[in-house]
Amino acid sequence: MAEATPDLSDGEYRRLLEFRTGLRRFLQWSEEAASAIGVTPAQHQLLLAVRGHDDRRGPTIGELAGHLLLRHHSTVELVDRAVTAGLVERVPDAGDARVVHVRITPDGASRLSELSAAHLQELDRLVPRMAQLWEGLQPAAPTRNSRPEGG
Hints:
This protein has a two-stranded antiparallel ribbon. Helix 3 crosses helix 4. The two termini are 13 Å apart. Helix content is 60%, strand content 7%. The chain is mainly alpha-helical and 151 residues long.
């Protein structure tokens, strides 16, 4: 038996539209900010995945692929281009010659720092409105054709 589709109000559709539009505007703004400092949006994501990784040796290609939601070979190509651009470097693992870690270079760190500061400012501006929209999309009570947890 198919689950019942909730009846949404016109206001909920408007809030969903505004929420998705806000997300897309942020992503477009982010892409333009990356391009303005000479990195592609994919390189920006790569730099963030490398710098934000919790292992001081740096992430492996496989770990990066997981963070970036890319296939292994696509991640290798992205890292190749970032190495050529001087943004990251490959570092062989000291204990296992089959493993290579990716580390951010000083130039990559400088660009990421600039981008990250700008992104945090933009998020400070954007998040209150997005949170307001999100709250408006939350059901007031669990009676709106929702399943009980575990059901």
